Amino acid sequence: MKSLVSLLLITLFLHANEAQAIIKKLEKNLRGDYMYSTMSMIVTSKRGKRTVKIESWSEENDKSFIKILYPKKDKGITFLKIDNQMWQYIPKIERTIKIPPSMMLQSWMGSDFTNDDMVKESSLEEDYSAKLLSKKGDSATLELIPKPDAAVVWGKIIIDVDLKNAVPVKEVFYDDMMQKVRIMTFSKIEQHGSHRVPMVMELKPLDPNKKKNRTKVIFEKVNFDTKIDPSYFTKQALKRYSR
Amino acid sequence: MLFSLAFRNIVKSKGRSITTLLLSTFSTILFICYVALMDGSHHQIIKSSVEIYTGYAHVNLNGYRDEGGYDNLIEEADRIDAILKNDASIKAYSPRFETYALLSGDEKAIGSLIAGIIPSREQDLSKLKDSLIKGDYLSDNDTNAIYVGSELSERLKVDVGSQIAMVGSSVDYSIAADLFTVKGIFKTGLFEFDSQSAFVNKAYLDTVMLSDNIASYFTLYFHNNDKIDKMTTDLQASLPSEYEAVNWKILLTALVQAMLVDSIFGYISISIFFLVIFFVIMIFSYVNIYTRAREIGLLRALGLTSKDIFGMLFVEILLLATVSIIIGTIIGASIAYYYELNPIVISGIAETYKEYGVVSDEIPMKFDLFTITWNALTIFILNLAAILYPISKINKLTAMEAMRYV
Question: Are A53 and A37 spatial neighbours (Cβ–Cβ below 8 Å)?
Fold first, then answer.
């Protein structure tokens, strides 16, 4: 009996360990020390469809600089994220404004992402305990439960992983009442340097009032290999690189 | 005969009758005034909330109240405007465009309601103009002028003439940003409203938000706001099916429910008081009746039945209760009427209770004949009920027992 229990515990431990290893591999693949990218964000809502073109620079997980390239009306608007704080610069009024905590759950640029999504440097590996739910060939399904002291908004994430490419295929987000809130799907995997990257991400909120809403992000250029000038991650950069 | 006997007893025992009368009259006055004051203060809080900004009724697209945002805007404001214009029951109305944006003074940025209003029309619909404390109210020709709440101006550290940057989202979800100069500062007394609201001339805000001919909703004021449910239902019939007309009872549901809960607690408190009054009347009647035990025994010996005794004592209390209720009601109603016209003023109460929506130091009473009638009837029934037990007890004694009763 004792050996049976021990075997069960060892199996559970190995499963947890394997799940954690998968997450670690996935994060390592998706994140480099530096990342430069350009992308199009297509936002579909009840009011129609709009496209925003974005240029982005980031360093590790805690610094990023975003510049809006299109539409013309928004061209030159820049965002800076350092740790959990976010600033934006609007060329039309030549003002840099820090986004206050009360606005963090507001939509970012009219998309289904919130300001909080842009700022949170949540690391799946550090903030969640992973459990392997199933594994078949090159695909696995993991359940991520936030660690007790993690400052995250989700109650649970179920993630389908492509083990061969070390990329997520689908992420289902649950709130703290364990209700499904949104689904993010990843597709079109490409090799960029030593990284395999899903070039298309689509976020779909599950709120019945937002049935028509979805936000699709299509990466156009991705570069992990070039060091980014630290001057991008300063408040002065907001105005300087706005032009 | 019973009536004349009862009347003779009342006149004969003046002290007893006057005490019963006073007790009952005082209870009636107290009850009427208490309820009038409670209803009056609730009415005042709701009226303030309705008239300061919300308005008596709104017309909006179905779903707007639940979801808000830009997905449920009135995209054909002209069409709704024309319908409301032709409705004879509406005294005044105006479109509003509301959004949530970041406002920033020199130092910090704050998320706030920013609403586009038609200044000239709004002054007949809300207390925004009357709440001006500094600078000027908006005009229909204003461009980059903003009218901000007093608490918001303090939080943003701005004054009349200061510049405020606004960053929000246009209706096409592109970034809307502009600089405004503070034209005026208002204070309604509603703390949350004063700390999170700013207003701009709608014609100009529409150019920034790309919301021309778009409104979040129309606010309106009927000629007869007392019959608001009927007015709203009638208006609904003239609107296209995708629109809804809702009145303040729904718009301010939380407040209405809070007032209801407060009323229930108010009635529970007063019920405890009346329980005490009831027992006081009952004990007083009990003692009274038993001091008259010999007299009652004699009447029984003379041939009056227990039914006659019950009738006589009941008529006594009926007469006393009727007189005291009439006097109490006249005095109570007069007090309620007087204080409805000349509210009680307690300086500083608005400041202390501002978060509960108390915006004035005046606490009016509410003179309502229906409420006064049921208040008076309650005391009347309480009086009659209080006598039943003592009468039944005395009637259980035989004539001999009653006559020997010490």
Answer: no
